[in-house]
């Protein structure tokens, strides 16, 4: 067994001043039995459990007073992240501002976007050319040289907190880079380190895995194993060959990775994104996805977090079909992640744009709205990854849309191959055999800004902006945290320069990871520019969202019949108000029957006086029902 860690600056237990409450001890006691039970069930290793608990105390002791104060504040208000006032943005530090200090210098811009939750894309040490955008981590305690230092990161966290901004960072827990110290030592033949990964002398076992484990990157990294000729062994690599899967059946791996997660927490990171979490447990004869042990591990991490840093949230990255996603919330009594990505809704939004048919989106929202109100989603239109068309094909096939041809239609539409398409972008992991492919592009390019700009088509641009704003209005109408992908607020389009970079050109996800265009920001104040129209429309919606309690997670959300497959109607009922949103996903002008009246939240005008609402193509309305018709629940005279 290992010594207690001193790297956290542990204050020996005996030093707690007399009379000071043992807060950590009390918090741990709440979960101790369950934690020990789960740990022993998985590892049956008392010594490592004791080591874990001792080190947790050390990490708690080393936690800064300011962070402990934040923990206490958030513990007293566990709903702190479930209001309507949080607005997120995700960005690459280097692309946005060169390095961490640059981000700190540009926090004024972040604030001017209304953002108070900032997700910094992976920034820990990662070898150039074999980094998977930073998702191949070589050192969990060191920042990439060109981005700065751990001290810069800590200083940025302090500055963010001073300005009311929470920070999110990735915790890449499924694998390490082949350059990580453990991997190097494993490669050098140290058995102890080989045991932290999945090493096999012969192809027999890998071959058995290959029979049941699907491939994540079928075209860029075929197979789930990589042969290491220098070692004479196969190593499991579910993602890229340079990302070696960690073996969580080894308690040392779990303990050490927990310390790495808490290292981020102690730097002042508020939200920890659990990268690729469904993959972390491997078992022969299974798909190695979403296994029960994954939930045990996440539940243990949740309890550990609640003991050491209860102000820190776990955000699960579960890019799976809906039935596999919700279990990562755990149960209300035994929660796992605090938040999850609303990935199916995101993909369904884009399906709806291409088909102009809201039926599937309505069905998807009915599922989400039917989940316990404690479940909090992070909503987004685009992120750093591709869009996988993980839709509900059972339902779609009943409506005549079969999986393969439909995926092909979506990809044709969004790459701009169809005549009536305005979108621009590229395929990702295009598999010529299964004809399956995913899609990459920025929101603006997918909405038509790129094409209209290129063709000087003002009418097309007007429509593109309307679609872009409507999709954001739809996203902002949902509960949870809406997250804008940096650049989307100013309509940044695809960046094709990655093709000239030999390290990136095989990965089309870089098309939407371009350098942030600060020149676009200048246009925000220039009337009539794309940036002015987009940015100001979004700000208006975001401000309204923050002002209305019906956008909070605990409000009741529902879909309504619109009588038109191109139009989606949503309602949110809080304690004091009912809001409604009418979204036209079609390219036609629509007359929507509306007898409930109400006031337009954006213009303050009366709605539906003549029993109808008129919507231009891709237009929307955000309205509030007047109190008397809420009570009566009936039609209201103009
Ligand atoms: C996650 C990331 C993705 C990365 C993968 C492997 O899915 O979002 O960008 O390639 O994990 O770490």
The CATH topology of the domain at 22-172 and 250-341 comes to TIM Barrel
Residue windows where pLDDT falls under 50 for at least 5 positions: 1-14, 629-638
- By secondary-structure content and strand pairing, the structural class works out as alpha/beta
Strand content: 15-25%
User: Going by CATH, what is the homologous superfamily of the domain at 22-172 and 250-341?
Assistant: Glycosidases
- By CATH, the architecture of the domain at 22-172 and 250-341 is named Alpha-Beta Barrel
Give the helix level as a range of percent.
Answer: 25-40%
Report the count of strand segments.
24
> What is the oligomeric state here?
single chain
> What does the average pLDDT come to?
94
Which radius of gyration do the C-alpha atoms yield?
Answer: 25 Å
N-to-C terminal Cα separation, in Å? 77 Å
Q: State the strand order across the main sheet.
A: 1-2-5-11-12-13-14-17
The main pleated sheet reads as: 8 strands, parallel, barrel
Tell me the name of the CATH class of the domain at 22-172 and 250-341. Answer: Alpha Beta
| Bound small-molecule species | alpha-D-glucopyranose
Characteristic key phrases:
globular; TIM Barrel; 638 residues; Immunoglobulin-like; 24 strands; disordered C terminus; 16% strand; binds alpha-D-glucopyranose; disordered N terminus; Oligo-1,6-glucosidase, domain 2
Tell me what the structure shows.
The chain has 638 residues and is an alpha/beta fold. Among the domains are: 22-172 and 250-341, Alpha-Beta Barrel (TIM Barrel); 175-245, Oligo-1,6-glucosidase, Domain 2 (Oligo-1,6-glucosidase, domain 2, Alpha-Beta Complex); 552-624, Golgi alpha-mannosidase II (Immunoglobulin-like), CATH 2.60.40.1180. It has an 8-stranded parallel β-barrel with strand order 1-2-5-11-12-13-14-17. A 5-stranded antiparallel beta sheet has the order 18-19-20-24-22, covered by helices on one side. A hairpin with a 4-residue loop joins strand 8 (225-228) and strand 9 (233-236). The longest helix is centred in the first third of the chain and has 21 residues, at 23-43. The relative contact order is 0.09. Alpha-D-glucopyranose is lined by residues 132-133, 135, 172, 239, 275-276, 317, 384-385.
């Amino acid at each position: 067994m290992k010594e207690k860690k001193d790297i956290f600056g542990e204050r020996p237990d005996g030093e707690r001043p007399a009379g000071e409450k043992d807060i950590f001890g009390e918090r741990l006691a709440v979960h101790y039995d369950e934690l020990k039970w789960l740990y022993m069930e998985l590892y049956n290793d008392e010594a490592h459990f004791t080591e874990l608990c001792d080190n947790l105390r050390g990490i708690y002791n080393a936690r800064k007073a300011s962070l402990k104060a934040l923990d206490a504040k958030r513990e007293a208000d566990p709903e702190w992240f479930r209001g309507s006032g949080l607005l997120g943005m995700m960005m690459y530090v280097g692309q946005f501002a060169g390095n961490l200090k640059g981000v700190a210098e540009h926090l004024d811009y972040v604030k001017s976007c209304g953002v108070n939750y900032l997700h910094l894309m992976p920034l820990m040490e990662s070898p150039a050319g074999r980094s998977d955008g930073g998702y191949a981590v070589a050192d969990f305690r060191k920042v990439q040289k060109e981005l700065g230092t751990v001290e810069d990161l800590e200083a940025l966290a302090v500055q963010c907190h001073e300005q009311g901004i929470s920070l999110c960072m990735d915790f890449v827990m499924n694998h390490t880079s082949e350059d990580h110290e453990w991997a190097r030592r494993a490669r050098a033949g140290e058995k102890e380190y080989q045991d932290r990964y999945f090493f096999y002398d012969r192809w027999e076992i890998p071959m058995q895995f290959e029979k049941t484990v699907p491939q994540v990157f079928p075209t860029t990294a075929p197979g789930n194993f990589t042969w290491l000729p220098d070692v004479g062994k196969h190593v499991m690599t579910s993602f890229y060959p340079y990302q070696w899967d960690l073996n969580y059946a080894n308690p040392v791996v779990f303990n050490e990775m927990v310390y790495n997660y808490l290292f981020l927490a102690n730097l002042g990171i508020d939200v920890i994104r659990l990268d690729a979490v469904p993959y972390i447990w491997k078992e022969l004869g299974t798909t190695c996805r979403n296994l029960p042990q994954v939930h045990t591990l996440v539940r243990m991490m949740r309890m550990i977090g609640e003991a050491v840093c209860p102000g820190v949230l776990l955000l699960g990255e579960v890019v799976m079909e809906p039935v596999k996603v919700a279990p990562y919330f755990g149960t209300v009594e035994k929660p796992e992640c605090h938040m999850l990505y609303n990935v199916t809704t995101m993909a369904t939004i884009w399906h709806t744009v291409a088909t102009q048919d809201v039926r599937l989106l309505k069905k998807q929202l009915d599922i989400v709205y039917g989940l316990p109100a404690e479940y909090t989603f992070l909503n987004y239109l685009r992120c750093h990854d591709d869009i996988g068309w993980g839709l509900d094909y059972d339902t779609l096939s009943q409506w005549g849309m079969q999986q393969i041809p439909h995926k092909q239609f979506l990809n044709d539409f969004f790459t701009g191959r169809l005549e009536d398409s305005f979108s621009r972008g590229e395929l990702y992991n295009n598999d010529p055999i299964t004809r399956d492919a995913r899609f990459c592009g920025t929101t603006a390019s997918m909405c038509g800004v790129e094409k209209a700009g290129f063709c000087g088509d003002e009418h097309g641009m007007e429509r593109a902006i309307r679609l872009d704003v409507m999709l954001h209005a739809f996203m902002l109408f949902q509960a949870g945290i809406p997250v804008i992908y940096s650049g989307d607020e100013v309509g940044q389009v695809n960046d094709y320069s990655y093709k000239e970079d030999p390290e990136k050109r095989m990965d089309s996800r870089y098309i939407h990871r371009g350098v942030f265009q600060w020149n676009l920001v200048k246009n925000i104040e220039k009337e009539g520019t794309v940036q002015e129209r987009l940015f100001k429309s979004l700000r208006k919606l975001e401000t309204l969202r923050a002002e209305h309690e019906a956008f909070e997670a605990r409000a009741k959300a529902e879909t309504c019949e619109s009588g038109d497959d191109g139009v989606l109607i949503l309602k949110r009922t809080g304690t004091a108000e009912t809001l409604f949103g009418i979204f036209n996903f079609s390219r036609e002008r629509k007359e929507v029957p509306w007898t409930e009246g109400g006031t337009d939240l954006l213009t303050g005008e009366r709605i539906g006086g003549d029993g109808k609402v008129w919507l231009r193509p891709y237009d929307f309305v955000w309205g509030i029902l007047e109190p008397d018709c809420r009570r009566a629940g009936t039609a209201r005279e103009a």
